[in-house]
Amino acid sequence: MYPPATSALPCVAGIGLRAPHYREVLDTLPDLGWVEAHSENFFGGGAPLHTLLAVRQHYPVSLHGVGMGLASPAPINEGHLAALKRLCDVVQPARISEHLCWNTVNGDVINDLLPFPHTHAALAHVASRIDHVQAVLGRQLLVENLSSYVSFTSSEMSEGEFLAELVRRTGCGILFDVENLYVNVRNLGVDEDVFIRAIPAHAVGEYHLAGFSVRDGCLVDTHDHPVCDAVWTLYEKVLRHIGPRPTLIEWDGNIPALPVLMAEAGKAQLRMEACDECFA
Amino acid sequence: MNVLHDELADFSHAIIKGAPSSSGVVAPPHYSVTIGLEVYRNNYRGNLQDALAGAYPVIEQLVGTDFWHMLARDFISLHGSCSANLYDYGAELGDFLEDYEAARSLAYLPDVARLEWACHHAYFATDAEPLDLARLSQVAPADHANLLLHVHPACRIVASVFPIVAIWQAHQAGGSFDIDWAGGGETALVSRQNDAVNVHALKADAAHWLEAVIQGQSLGMATAATLKRFPLFDLQETLLRFAALNVWTDFSLGETS
Hints:
The structure holds two protein chains of two kinds. By secondary structure, chain A is of the alpha/beta class. Chain A has nine helices and 13 strands.
């Protein structure tokens, strides 16, 4: 009922477009496969939106939301959804994604990506909200797996099973964040092979890669470091099982010079090409 | 759903208020639940602190880094977020500073904060086409008094008994600290042109008139009220100056008064 998971994004590596690089990207038009931008940063008009529209003339753009709170107990914030819809209408993104998380309860907003118990009741709740978002946008949504620092004893299924069931019920796609999986493996003891096997390969529309930091033994998804060797290794494993997909390098803190970010994307590109051969 | 609501309300309480979490929240063997929750608490505060710092760079310069951190922490403990868009966070800082004992000696801070919020708002405001002055000039003179001028969504007025425009400008790149503290207050007009946010000091008569227009008064009513108080008010010059500052987007004809 919505455009399928095979992406309008080219199956190459892209970068997260952040404010420090706007000017340089537009002035030099570097060789970027595609870019991803955080939807909420462009909900108004003025300089941010006009910059994104200028970038859009040169590169495919994916819009990545951090605020929809798909699992929040409150009703979907219709104003937020309408703003996303307006943005999608003008940008015409190749992809639209959100996180499998919540951010609002009793009117209190926590501007973060928060975990929740993976219960059957939560599944029905999240599925109905994804249905609604996709109906309003008229587009398929990619839903991203989360990095977590705690878990809930009331969970009745794994995150991978939860995502697979969302795909079955709503036709949404999956944004597979490899670093988030790695964080959960190290923090919560998630079995990476079980997770990968649970994910329906056909639904995966995009991968994310990023760096983390460590606080008191807990891996924190800070996006402020290069991708570490263990995450590259896990990415190679995911590529072998699921296949190449458009892959994004996310870097949100201590943002490096553009060539450093592009070199990081180049590492993903090499691995995708190597994997292309094994899928050929 | 109710169970989910209760669990997440409990979790949110643990993050926002620092309360202990319910027994349903667990962590792995190699770190404690407290450490896991502390990551969420730090993210929560850190994201709001970054949002405030983004909106209030002049206030941060005025009070210095250490004071700013204390101020931001105190503000966040009183004002939670109510929008999933972080650019909406921090609107109440001006009012908060009014009652903030530690900043009493800097009496101009609340109004400078209000001016910065107006600038922050202007930067992200939605787009609107500028007014076509040729179209306005075609309105029949008999209808002039009933004109309702539509103001750009980025425009805001901030009035103060302090020279807030000079203070604000002094803290922009290349700004001069030539502030006339004895010269009385200033009323700032914030507007956006070609994506740049501009701050201009308004003369008292122009400020009086624009306030009335923003409140929805017709050209006739607003001008009559302003002329009563400021007999030398020049409507034509003021209207064109605001057009040049991209204040107008459109017009309509109100009810005949």
